[in-house]
Amino acid sequence: MELTVKHILSFFLILHLLLLGNTMNAGSPVQDSLLVKKDSLDALLKLKQAETLTEEGQYDTACLIVESVLETAIEQSLEPIEADSYYLLGRIKDRTGNNWELTLRYFLKAKMIYEGLDLRGKIASVNQFLASKYYDLGVYSKSAAYYTDLYSLYEDGVDGDPVSVSYNIAVSYFRDRRYREAMPWFEKSGALSYGKGVAGSRINSLFGLTSCAMGLNDYDAAEKYLHELMPLLENTGQYESLAEAYSMEALVYFERKDYSRAIDLYLKSVEILQESDGAVHEVYTNAAICYQNLENSGMASRYFELALSDARKQNDKRGMARLEHIMAVVSENKEDYYHADYYCNAAIEDAMASSSYDILQECYLTYSEVLETGNDFVKALEYYEKYLSLRDSLLVEERLAGQAEEQRRADLENLEQQLLLSLSDEELKDIMIDKLKVENEKRDNELKLMERERELEKSERERLEQSMVLAREKYNREMQEQQIHNLEQERAIQRLELLRQENEEKELLRKNQLQESEIKQQQLEIEKEHEARKRLIWMAVLLGIIVILILVSFISSRRKNIILSEQKNEISLQKDIIEEKNMSITDSIEYASRIQSAVLPVINFLDEWGMDNFILFKPKDIVSGDFYWGQRKGHLLSFAAADCTGHGVPGAFMSMLGNAYLNDIINSREFDNAGDILNQLRKEVMFSLKQKGEEGEAQDGMDISLCLYNIKDNILDFAGANNPLYIIRDDKLERIDADKMPIGIHRSYDKPFTNHRIKPEKGDLIYLFSDGYADQFGGTEGKKFKYRAFRDMLLREHKRPMKEQGKMLEAAFDEWRGEIEQVDDVLVIGVKF
After folding, report:
1. Is residue 48 over pLDDT 50?
2. Quick one: pLDDT band at residue 377, thresholds 50, 70, 90?
3. Of 741 and 436, the one with more pLDDT
4. Is the pLDDT confidence value at 771 over 50?
5. Once rounded to an integer, what is the mean pLDDT over residues 288-315?
6. Nearest residue to 171 (alpha-carbon basis) of 126, 141, 192, 199
7. Nearest-5° Cα angle at 99, 97 to 104
8. pTM of the complete model
9. Are 167 and 154 in contact (CB under 8 A)?
10. Which of 24, 144, 205, 580 suits a disulfide with 190, CB 3.0-4.6 Å?
11. Distance CA 735, CA 769 (A)
């Protein structure tokens, strides 16, 4: 019978081990223990059932089963099963995610029992869980500590992956900004993976080492790691990571102020990213900043525009807002306030759409400066107040968020300390109870021995006294150690209490500040009420005055009616005279229009030169302040679009003057470029109008865009006074900026005009124009047409024949204007090469 029972128990134990081996992952705590007793088999089977229910998501049922197993394990002193139960309870509580303190308590309790049993594989499982969990919670110091303990267990022979654990230690230190402590672990992870031939882990380690070196401003070390990293990336085909490595090396050279080398590396990164359709606006932005530091504003602007184009392609609203703000600042520095205004509005819109309030506050500040420069002081003050309000709000939110995050991490770190203290007290109580039980059992045995063997009473007493002395000494040593441990814990609790008191004082200070701000707000509201009462009083007084004036007016109106009847006849006579004079003036202006038309070139003068073109010319009045002009001298073709001060008769006089001077300059002098022509034209206009920069003198002049085309060499020179040139090439529109000064007196009148030299290609289109088209009010809301819509329309319609483009522009202008009066003369010249 005894043999049969042993065989049955052995069969069930072997069957249970086979089932656990087939259904559980390696390292699972719910495994058979070598220390099981006779009643442990049922507990193990229940734990396996609870494990299965946990994986199926039936947490409540699983929890009830585990708690019943735990109760049995504690009663039967089945410590391995007790620890496994705590571990599984911890996993269940973690998955339900409703009580981290209870989850942590279960895992710490399991770990204490595993340590007492020296089950290092299961200790490793607990360390792995707690390390990963603390990392997810952002408590990186605790995460690093548990990963370090886990690595030590792997070194002692526990099965595991030391490569990934050493890397996780390094990353935890790195996230905690402890770069010097992170670097040896990155080195260790890389060395371990290199020895195993794992290139991916070595690459990650080198990236980490480079980031740490840059965090410590050790750029020589960073460059060394990058030079080892890049061949690995090329050999393994990780080109996006290679692009990132190039950008990191570019940052090294940027910090060394070697901006040219940094630009080359950024552009290498762009080439790689573009092959995989990756986002490149961040890299373009960095390259533009390098060009700024090299004081190459042209290339900086170009790369900022490329970055903005890519951000729009990627629909990165935050990136768009940041780049549009940069473009606004660049335009403001160039005194291009039109584009500064445009980019500020675009940046504000995209920053609000992406909730990028840190960028939005900077946009408000920049826009306030642009508005102030444009003398719109009311609106400038409004946006400056928005900037201050948002800045203060963000500072408060950032401070409160930082304090809350620090408090959260401190609470999480303190929670484990408190739980360990609590578990230590519980364990001490259990030890004392076990000792008392042992002592009672010993006493019972002694009484039985005394009854059975009285002859051995003396020797037995001596033995018992010796054992009692040794037990007492051991107990005293343990109590002393526990008292020392308790003192250390009390000191830690006192430090935590001091920290809590400091946090309470800070919170009290914040509340006082809020109360002060509320009091100030109440005072402002009281002052507003006083102002409102004053306004009511003044309105009542004003109303009384108005009533008095109405009475006086009524009395005097009767007298005036008599006078008005006498004046009516006289007005009728004067009306006839005025109508006669108006007719005479209109006839004179129409005659002046014929003179102006005769002086200006014929409207199709560019056709006679064999150039594909159109000229859209729509004067606001009978005569025009805008005028087109052209002259041919050998192989040089000169043509221009000009906008004189004012319109109507005053503008027409200036246009006649400008036309005459341009003819004289071209016919009587030799010029190499368009800029010299504008310099000479300015001298002639200032001399004729007697402009010397003195106060009160006439500020008349003109804006002009002028081209000088060398047919022989195929070279186009352009110079502009306030009016730019648009050129379309390969379906892209580029703006050639004019100088921000007119033909006439100006604070920069001694500064020469800039000459821009272009090599036209077949199919290129250029456009010269005045501001009349873009400034016309119209549409459903009566707003300006604006230059952006003008550019978009040119780019959209540029493939039409030139004459058809002119007709399309005129039709679009008339449709936009509708019934609204034309506000200015309109002139647009288009030429195709």
Report:
1. yes
2. confident
3. 741
4. yes
5. 88
6. 141
7. 100
8. 0.47
9. no
10. 205
11. 12
- Angle, nearest 10°, between helix axes 79-96 and 100-117? 160
Residue for token pair 């506000």: 823
User: Six-digit token pair at 168?
Assistant: 């996780």
Of 204, 147, 212, 202, give the one whose Cα is nearest residue 174.
212
The predicted model gives 147-160 an average pLDDT of 88
* Cα dihedral value 421, 422, 428, 430, nearest 10: -160
H or E element in which residue 42 lies: helix 40-55
Structure-token pair, residue 753: 């005009």
What is the per-residue pLDDT across 687-735, written as a single tens digit (0 to 9) for each?
888 877 666 666 778 999 999 999 999 999 999 999 999 999 999 999 9
- In angstroms, the Cα distances linking 832 to 42, 611, 709, 767, 769 are 94, 7, 12, 9, 15
Evaluated on CA atoms 104, 107, 109, 115, the torsion sign reads negative
- Please determine, for residue 470, whether its predicted confidence score (pLDDT) is greater than 90: no
Question: What is the residue whose two structure tokens read 């269940």?
Answer: 92
Angstrom distance (rounded) from CA 787 to CA 816: 14
DSSP state at residue 722: B
Q: Is there a contact between 413 and 492 (Cβ–Cβ < 8 Å)?
A: no
Q: Are residues 174 and 208 in contact, defined by beta-carbon separation less than 8 angstroms? A: yes
- 638, 663 Cβ separation under 8 angstroms: no
Separation CA 277–CA 271 (nearest Å): 10
- Asked if residues 407 and 138 have their Cβ atoms less than 8 Å apart, the reply is no
Q: Cα separation of 662 and 671, whole Å?
A: 12
SS3 735: strand
Handedness of CA 588, 589, 595, 598 (dihedral sign): negative
- Residue 717, strand partner residues: 708, 757
782: left (phi over 0), alpha (psi -120 to 50) or beta: left
DSSP 8-state code for residue 217: T
Cα 668 to the center of its chain, rounded Å = 59
Average pLDDT, the chain: 80
In sequence order, the 6+-apart residues with CB closer than 8 A to the CB of 735 are: 724, 725, 726, 791
CA distance 50 to 548: 96
- Residue 403 confidence (pLDDT): 73
pLDDT digits (tens, 9 = 90+) for 774-822: 999 999 888 999 999 999 999 999 999 999 999 999 999 999 999 899 9
Distance CA(427)–CA(116), nearest Å, equals 11
Q: What is the pLDDT of residue 105?
A: 86
Amino acid at 571: I
Token pair in block for residue 531:
């102002």
